[in-house]
């Protein structure tokens, strides 16, 4: 994968491949290739950026999922059919999944005219992911549905960010499920060991909650390094910097619960310590804050949706869209 930035202040690498003691390290293969960009000039020009409507300072939907159930009783639950329909809509509207780690490190290499979407799953619920005895994702789980939709839509990358607590996916005592995810290019993120409310916890409890789950992930998947955190309840610590850095951990981004799209990581408005998310929801109470509403908003002609210029070495945007983040200024192309 090509990287827009090889390094940057405040951002960490996605994977650490150094071997650990014990079992042989899992060295995840490179993430599945992004679809080949549409034909584009060797270097993007203002005219080419304008032609595809590039806006790489536009908004990015970071969708939040929890459970798939046959009969939802909560705004945090969706049926498998609803989930599949949402993925089909995203694919039809030329969204390309990226991970949270790719978002915060600005590694967005998309075809010209495509839009990034981040699929995030909290709590490690078994309806998100389980393995069959044969070692395959169980039918009806979110990961299996995602893989099936991606198989039918080659531009739709089968990647997502799964945020886990202790004993994810109904157990996983031997770490087999987490290793499968790492080996198949899914991001494994931290959701604290016991789903701790980091706003009400004392500082030592905050750092312990994050560091303990970080250690559990590394133990289950030797060689893997989690780099983003989903804040339980969307609650930030009183000292907000503790969400990203503390004894035993250093992260590039932290996710809120939120109710709207995230700024582009190259926008001056982007705060890696407080990335908003959109709850996956199409109907019912508070649906005006859900994904169906926001995807409608982002599809409107007057929206400010992140649209790729097809050139990962350039950040193209309309002159009216700025300001651009200092980290992206040297590769910015206003038109």
Task: Explain what the structure shows.
Helix content is 21%, strand content 14%. By secondary structure, the protein is α/β, with parallel strands linked by helices. Helix 2 runs parallel beside helix 4 (142-152). Mean pLDDT is 89; it is low at 1-30 and 36-41.
The oligomeric state is single chain
Task: Please state the structural category.
Answer: alpha/beta
Number of DSSP helical runs: 7
Low-confidence blocks of residues: 1-30, 36-41
Computed over alpha carbons, the radius of gyration is 19 Å
**Portion in strands:** 5-15%
N-to-C SSE series? HEEEHEHEHEHEHEEEEEHEE
Number of strands: 14
The overall pLDDT average reads: 89
How would the global form be characterised? Answer: globular
The main β sheet shows up as:
6 strands, parallel
The CA-CA distance between the termini, in Å, is 27 Å
Q: What is the helix content?
A: 10-25%
Which SSEs are present, and which pair or pack?
Layout: H1 46-51, E1 62-65, E2 67-68, E3 77-78, H2 80-92, E4 95-98, H3 100-104, E5 115-122, H4 142-152, E6 161-164, H5 176-183, E7 187-190, H6 203-220, E8 228-230, E9 245-246, E10 249-250, E11 253-255, E12 278-279, H7 291-299, E13 315-317, E14 332-334
Parallel strand pairs: 1-5, 1-12, 2-3, 4-5, 5-6, 6-7, 8-11, 13-14
Antiparallel strand pairs: 9-10
């Amino acid at each position: 994968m090509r990287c827009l930035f090889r390094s940057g202040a405040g951002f960490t690498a996605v994977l650490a491949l150094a071997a650990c003691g014990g079992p042989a390290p899992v060295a995840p293969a490179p993430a599945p290739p992004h679809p080949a960009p549409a034909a584009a000039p060797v270097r993007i020009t203002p005219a080419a950026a304008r032609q595809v409507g590039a806006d790489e300072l536009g908004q990015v939907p970071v969708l939040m999922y929890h459970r798939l159930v046959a009969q939802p009783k909560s705004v945090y639950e969706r049926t498998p059919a609803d989930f599949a329909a949402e993925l089909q809509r995203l694919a039809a509207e030329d969204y390309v999944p990226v991970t949270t780690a790719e978002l915060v490190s600005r590694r967005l290499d998309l075809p010209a005219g495509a839009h990034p979407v981040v699929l995030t799953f909290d709590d490690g619920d078994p309806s998100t992911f389980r393995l069959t005895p044969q070692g395959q994702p169980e039918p009806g789980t979110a990961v299996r549905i995602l893989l099936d939709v991606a198989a039918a839509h080659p531009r739709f990358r089968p990647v997502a960010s799964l945020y886990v607590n202790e004993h994810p996916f109904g157990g996983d005592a031997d770490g087999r499920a987490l290793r499968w995810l790492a080996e198949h290019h899914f991001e494994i993120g931290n959701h604290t060991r016991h789903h701790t409310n980091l706003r009400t916890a004392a500082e030592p409890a905050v750092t312990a909650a994050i560091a303990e789950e970080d250690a559990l992930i590394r133990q289950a998947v030797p060689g893997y390094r989690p780099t983003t955190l989903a804040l339980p309840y969307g609650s930030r610590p009183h000292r907000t910097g503790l969400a990203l850095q503390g004894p035993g951990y250093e992260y590039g981004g932290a996710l809120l619960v939120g109710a709207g799209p995230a700024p582009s990581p190259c926008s001056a408005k982007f705060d890696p310590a407080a990335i908003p998310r959109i709850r996956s929801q199409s109907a019912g109470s508070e649906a005006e804050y859900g994904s169906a509403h926001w995807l409608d908003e982002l599809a409107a002609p007057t929206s400010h949706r992140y649209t790729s210029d097809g050139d990962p070495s350039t950040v193209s945007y309309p002159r009216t869209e700025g300001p651009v983040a200092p980290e992206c200024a040297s590769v910015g192309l206003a038109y």
